[in-house]
Amino acid sequence: MTGPDHIAERIETAADALRAATRVAVLTGAGVSADSGVPTFRGPGGLWRNFRPEDLATPEAFERDPQLVWEWYDWRRQKIASAKPNAGHIALVELEEIVPDLTLITQNVDGLHEAAGSKHVIELHGCIWRVRCPAEGTVAENRQVPLSEIPPHCRCGSLVRPDIVWFGESVPGEAIAAACHAAEEAEVMLVVGTSALVYPAAALPLLTSQRDGAVIEVNPEPTMLSELTHLGLRGRGAEILPQLVAAVRRE
Ligand code: OAD
Q: Which of 164, 182, 216 finishes a domain?
């Protein structure tokens, strides 16, 4: 089946499942912010097409060249600072208002879900607007754009790092435990804009489907998850999610 009727039908089916659910988990990746002009990691125009993660997003890279790592994060912070939540982020805020128990799990560090107004957000990979002092073990908000000092320092004099989970590091225990709990309990898991190549995030939809929950994927492209997915909605988040939420609202 092809054509607009087909996608409209699929959206209705997805909306029926969401309307019937008490507990919903949403897993988002870089694709949900693509419509806000924030580059994704993989695929055309993706950050990892032009930059090597091992030079910029590992503890070793930071130890070797904190200046370079911070210059890259400062550049990304500037890009994100000029981005606004899109219709997809906003539709997820509306969905949170409709579903009795919705947990939004994101791999994104841009803070756009919170900026849109989502309340129950688990940030698996940290936040680009926070810095961490490894010497003191403290975390602080830092929204200065551009940074006046690169690399930035803590009041204690030590170098601070972005409060982001880098390759080779573990997702904070509390965040992954809460995400696993939400995924296991969910009657429906809505997966938006992730290639599902990075673990543990990529395993979360499996937890839902193992407990007989439905997995719905919103993505213009097939992904590693598409085979597991009960319903695929092919398209951009900013286009599909508002239609989906409008359909959930219609009885
Ligand atoms: P990727 O860049 O790997 O995948 C982005 C996904 O978004 C792809 O499947 C695209 O098809 C899809 N996409 C593109 N445009 C879209 C749109 N307008 N609407 C919906 N989907 C769209 O990003 P992630 O899966 O988030 O980790 O990557 C996971 C992690 O890998 C990131 O959190 C980051 C990265 O390395 C760290 O930095 C630790």
A: 164
Is-catalytic flag, 120? no
| Nearest-CA residue for atom 25 of ligand 1 | 194
Q: Which uninterrupted H or E stretch holds 217? A: strand 214-218
Say how many Å lie between the CA of residue 195 and the centre of ligand 1.
Answer: 5
User: In this structure, how many other beta carbons lie within 10 angstroms of the beta carbon of residue 79?
Assistant: 16
Question: Is residue 180 classed as helix, strand or coil in its secondary structure?
Answer: helix
Whether the per-residue pLDDT at 3 is higher than 90: the answer is no
d(C-alpha 221, C-alpha 239), whole Å = 14
- Residue 30 beta carbon below 6 angstroms from any ligand 1 atom: yes
For the record, the structure tokens of 26 come out as: 């949403």
What phi and psi values does residue 188 have, to the nearest 5 degrees? -135, 135
Q: Please tell me if the CB atom of residue 125 comes closer than 6 angstroms to any atom of ligand 1.
A: yes
Protein residue with its CA nearest to atom 18 in ligand 1: 236
Are residues 143 and 225 located together in one domain of the fold? no
Question: In total, how many domains does the chain have?
Answer: 2
Atom of ligand 1 nearest to the CA of 218: 20
* Ligand 1 center from residue 41 Cα (angstroms): 6
Would the pTM of this model clear 0.90, i.e. be above it? yes
CA 103/CA 147 separation, integer angstroms: 33
CATH number of the domain to which 101 belongs: 3.40.50.1220
Q: Are residues 100 and 177 in the same domain?
A: yes
Average pLDDT score, the chain? 96
